[in-house]
Amino acid sequence: MTTAAAIRSRRPFAVRVLIWLLVATAAATVVVDVLNWWYAPERGFGLAVRSGWALLRTLGFLVLVWHVRRGRAGARPFGLILAVTTVFAVGRLIVPRAGVPPLPGVLGFAGLTALCAAVVWLLYRSASVRAHLVRHPARLIVDRRGLSLRESAPRRPELTGWLITTRVAAFSYGPLTLVPCLVAIGTIFDGRLVAAPTVVLWFVVGIAVSYAVLFGTFFLLRGKRWAAGLLVALTALVLLVNLPLCWALLGLDGLLRDGAPLVLAATMALYGLWRAGGARRADPGPAVPADRWVGSPAG
Questions:
Q1: Which end of the chain, C or N, has fewer beta carbons within 10 A?
Q2: For 38-60, how does the pLDDT look when each residue is reduced to its tens digit (9 = 90+)?
Q3: 171-196, pLDDT tens digit by residue?
Q4: Are residues 178 and 254 in the same domain?
Q5: Exposure letters 200-232 (e unless 16+ CB within 10 A, then b)
Q6: Which domain holds residue 161?
């Protein structure tokens, strides 16, 4: 019988280091968020929403650990999006509206940034990690032996790594729309009742975008060219709706704190889509195995 210790010992050293780095990054996210809250000069509704969203990324890193341990190909783009957007999500918390950020928050943010950079480096620069992250997700298989859950190749064509990156980045549109929308609810509590219909419409757009991205990426991964155009249109819509509303309801501070991560996610999604199209035209041969799970806690 193969023991759990024997299974762990077969993992490459770089993979084991990556797993511990991810656990440390999850813990650092909690520590930095608590420091930011403790030293914040103003603990308003907006800071509470953004802090809660940053804390949710801890679960994202733990989910990423689960995928790395099982060698899922989708762990690489998921880790990239999660690490980059975590730096933005936490970084926007340490900068106060006026004055300089507290030293403990700055040191914690610097440590978290270093951990995220190390995670991305291992995911994309370590040959042993790349060789480990190639497995297909388990599926229910019916054969002569009955019903079983085991790894099997997907029926659809294999995907390029850039296409998976595009999918992960696009799935962050919904959360990155809803977070500033929830922050804007605080403006209603402050007496700006005239903003209520706009906030409600903003919330509806965020929910609709989430479902539209799910629909578009479903067909995008199956080689439908019109789905790429739909994703580009959704990206433009998200930017045209969110950036002006962040400016109008949250001011320049909200535009920088909530608009910048969305612009980053949109850039990565469009760049991945462009690179995937170029790779498909240049070489339609074997690519990175698809991972059906890939979704977003990121934003």
A1: N
A2: 877 676 777 778 778 778 888 88
A3: 889 888 988 888 888 777 766 777 78
A4: yes
A5: eebbebbeebbebbeebbeebbeeeeebbebbb
A6: 156-299
